[in-house]
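The instructor's notes for this session suggest beginning with a concrete chain rather than abstract definitions. Hand out the sequence below and ask the class to guess, before any prediction is shown, which regions might be ordered.
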Amino acid sequence: MSDIYTEGTEELILNMGPQHPSMHGVFRMIIRLQGEIVTSIEPKIGYLHRGLEKLAESRTYAQFIPYTDRLDYLASPHCNLAYVQTVEKLMGLEIPERAEYLRVIIAELARFASHQVFIASSALDMAGWTAWGYPFRDRERILDMFEMLAGNRLTVNVMRIGGINAEPPEEFWPALQSFVDDMPEKIEEYYNIYLGNEIAQARMKKIGILPKEVAENLSITGCALRASGVNYDVRKNEPYGIYDRFDFEVPVLHGCDTFDRNMVRLMEMNESLKIIRQAMRDIPEGPVMAKVPRVIKPPVGEVYHRVENPKGEMGFYIVSNGTTKPERVKIRAGAFVNLQCLEEIGVGTYVQDLIASFASLDAVLGEVDK
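After discussion, reveal the predicted structure:
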C-alpha cells in the first residue's frame, strides 16, 4: 500500500463490536489503523459462550439434541445431523432408507437457506439494501417447509437418534417441488442484483486474499477453502449418510478473494437443488425411525464424526462410559476455526474492505463461542 495514504497520520485503535451491525453477532475485533489502512486485527470472542460441551455431560444423549440447534442457528438441521450421526456411529445403528433421504433433503434445504442469509448479509454489509431483500424473501419458503416439519422456523429440531421425528405432512411435497422449480431463476436474480453488480465486484475482487497454502495450513474448511482452490468437501471426500449416491459437483474457484468466497456459495445453491431433486426422485417408502432402545446407552468407547456444514466442517467427538450420559463431548466448529484467517485477509486492506472480507467468512457466533 502506498505511503501516500498513511503519511503524517497517527495510529488509531478502533473497537468494532460486539454491538457493531456488521459483526454478524456478538463478535468483537480490536483493529489498529494507520490512516484507513488496517495494520493489525485482534479478534475477541466468548460473548455468547454457553458451555454446551460441558452441558452435554449432564444430559442424556437424546436430551442434548436441542442444544445443538443453538450452534449454527441458521442451519440447525446440520448441527443436529452431525450429533445424532456421531451417536449412531458409536452405537452401530442402521438408519431406515426413507429417513436417510429425508435427512438429505432437510440438510440441503438448510444449506440453501444459510447461503441465502449469507448473500443477503454480505450485500447489506456493503450497504446493498436492495440486494438484501431478495434472498430473505425466498428464504421464507424454506422456513414455511421447516414449520411443516418441526413446528418452528429457526431451531428446526427434526433429527433423532435413529432417524427423523415424523413423516412429513402431505402439503410438504408440493411446496418442495414448487421451491426447486422456482429457485434456479431466483439464484440468477441474486447474481444480477448483487454479485454481478460492478460496484460489488470492485469492492470484493482481489480483496481479502487467502492463498491456498495458508488456507490449508490453518485448517480452513467449507466455502472459504474451496474459494482458495482446494477441492475438499466432506460429502465427497468422506461421504456420510447416503451422499455417495448423489451426482453433484463441488464448486471450486481459484481467486482466493472475497468475491470468490461469495460466488462459491451461490454456485453451491444450484448443487443443493440438484441433490434435492435426486432425493425426491429416489426416496423409497418405509419407516422414518429405526428400532432404538428406549434408554440409550452406547457401549464404552470414543468416536469422531464430521459433516459438511454450510459454515465449514462440523465434527463431534464423543467419549462414552457406557451410561446414559456422555463422559465427554467436544465440538469442532468450522466457523471457529475459519476465523483464524481474519488477520491474513484483513491486514493491509482498507477498513471498509475488512467489513466485506469478514462477511465472506460467514461466521455465526453461536457456533464460534459454543
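Then share the key points. The longest helix spans residues 97-125. The radius of gyration is 21 Å.
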